């Protein structure tokens, strides 16, 4: 069983459920009984983007930022296996290690909260709202630098008072 989990969800439910996994360790066997793949972006990213694209609001760190927690180390602390990966070139070997661990694994990937989780085709209204949000967003520059600049600029041109 492989679970793909955001860091917010893992903080909310996953971390305490690792104690349940520990409780039933003697019932688990096979090369990869459980892999919990945690995406550590220190952000409630899906909602941050909903607020950008649907309300036109910039990221509000007070509600959207979440602290960096060493999830892989936490797994080790409980006696499970923890694997940490923050390098694109090591993604393959991290998965190989997880898939042959022989015990439950927390596989933690450090990922970038400034990469927009958008489909290739975005609705005009959502584009306009995201552009409006980006003007005041604490991460606006990073997002633009990472690939959104063209789309945001295209939509920002249609906002009142912008040329
Ligand atoms: C119990 C519950 N509370 C709140 C939400 C609303 N919600 C949907 S996605 C999300 C943020 C998830 O953040 P994270 O788990 O870190 O995943 P990311 O989007 O950063 O990959 C929230 C709060 C929900 N779906 N379920
Ligand atoms: Mg997250």
Describe this structure in words.
By secondary structure, the protein is of the alpha/beta class. The protein has a single domain, classed as Thiamin diphosphate (ThDP)-binding fold, Pyr/PP domains (Rossmann fold, 3-Layer(aba) Sandwich). It has seven helices and four strands. It has helices at 7-23, 45-55, 61-64, 71-78, 91-99, 124-135, 140-156, and strands spanning 2-6, 35-40, 81-85, 105-110. Strands 1-2-4-3 form a four-stranded parallel beta sheet, sandwiched between helices. Helix 1 runs parallel beside helix 4 and helix 6 (124-135) crosses helix 7 (140-156). 31% of the residues are buried. The structure holds thiamine diphosphate (TPP) and magnesium ion. The site of thiamine diphosphate has 11 residues, from helix 1 and helix 2.
List the helices and strands and how they pair.
Elements: E1 2-6, H1 7-23, E2 35-40, H2 45-55, H3 61-64, H4 71-78, E3 81-85, H5 91-99, E4 105-110, H6 124-135, H7 140-156
Parallel strand pairs: 1-2, 2-4, 3-4
Bound molecules: thiamine diphosphate (TPP) and magnesium ion (MG).
Thiamine diphosphate (TPP) is lined by residues 6-9, 39, 41, 43-47.
The CATH topology name reads Rossmann fold
How many strand units? 4
The percentage helix is: 40-55%
Q: Give the termini distance in whole angstroms.
A: 52 Å
The major pleated sheet works out as: 4 strands, parallel
Task: Find the CATH superfamily.
Answer: Thiamin diphosphate (ThDP)-binding fold, Pyr/PP domains
**What is the structural class?**
alpha/beta
Adjacency order of strands in the biggest sheet: 1-2-4-3
- Computed over alpha carbons, the radius of gyration is 19 Å
CATH architecture: 3-Layer(aba) Sandwich
Uncertain stretches of 5 or more adjacent residues: none
Overall domain count: 1
Bound molecules: thiamine diphosphate, magnesium ion
Please work out how many helical segments DSSP would assign.
7
CATH class label: Alpha Beta
Succession of helices and strands: EHEHHHEHEHH
- Beta percentage is 5-15%
The coarse silhouette is elongated
Mean pLDDT: 90
